[in-house]
Amino acid sequence: KGTTHTGYHWVYYAPKAKMAVFDYQPSRSAAGPKDFLKDFQGALQTDGYQAYNQLQTHHQPNITLLACMAHARRYFEKALEHDPPRAQKAMEWIQQLYAIEREAEDLTNQQRYELRQQRALPVLQQWEEWMKQEQHQVLPKSTMGKAIGYSLNLWPRLVRYTQNGEWDIDNNAVENKI
Q: What is the DSSP track for 30-91?
């Protein structure tokens, strides 16, 4: 009473059911999602916040972590001001990936999976190779260094959406719910 309290909402969204749950927690520690998701099985798409890393452990082996392409894109968008040539190149690959997703909107899950395998994986492979080369040409703490570092650090989770036609490229649906 009489003081300000800081709390956090951890937001979970089930796309098929179109349901969002806002779980209040007093901190941003991993304990909140770890407890909330203790019986969860399935795919969980998140940003790069480290608390989520603890969810894919031997204690919760049935959680598949996916990263969000929109979050990766934001880092490159920030880098446009400081390193336009590199940032624009990365943004072009991301735009190609989203163009493929727009084509896949009305496809079955199997067709979406096949389209991603044929069209998205080659784009992702080119982009990854480029980032691995460019990371040594930029300062790690520069906006471009942060963009490349964020994406490469999450790369297995960032490209995982291509392994299942039900999964989304990003978690914009939950962001929109917020």
A: THHHHHHTTT--EEEEE-S-GGGGGGSSTTSTTEEEEE-HHHHHHHHHHHTTT-HHHHHHHH
Contacts of 84 (CB under 8 A, 6+ apart): none
Q: Look at the block and give the residue holding tokens 């079955």.
A: 108
Given a contact cutoff of 8 angstroms between Cβ atoms, the answer to whether 44 and 64 are in contact is yes
Q: Residue 1 and residue 11: Cα distance in Å, rounded?
A: 27
Its pTM stands at: 0.91
- Read off the pLDDT of residues 78-137 as tens digits, 9 standing for 90 and up: 999 999 999 999 999 999 999 999 999 999 999 999 999 999 999 999 999 999 999 999
- CB atoms inside a 10 Å sphere around CB 111: 12
Signed CA dihedral, 56, 60, 63, 69: sign only: negative
* Contact indicator for 146, 75 with CB cutoff of 8 Å: yes
At position 106, the amino acid (one-letter code) is: D
The Cα 76–Cα 146 span in angstroms is 9
Distances (CA, A) of 136 to 14, 130, 139, 145: 39, 11, 8, 9
For residue range 7-32, what is the model confidence (pLDDT) as tens digits?
A: 998 888 888 888 889 999 999 898 89
Residue 22, SS3 per DSSP: strand
Q: Which helix (H) or strand (E) holds 11?
A: strand 8-14
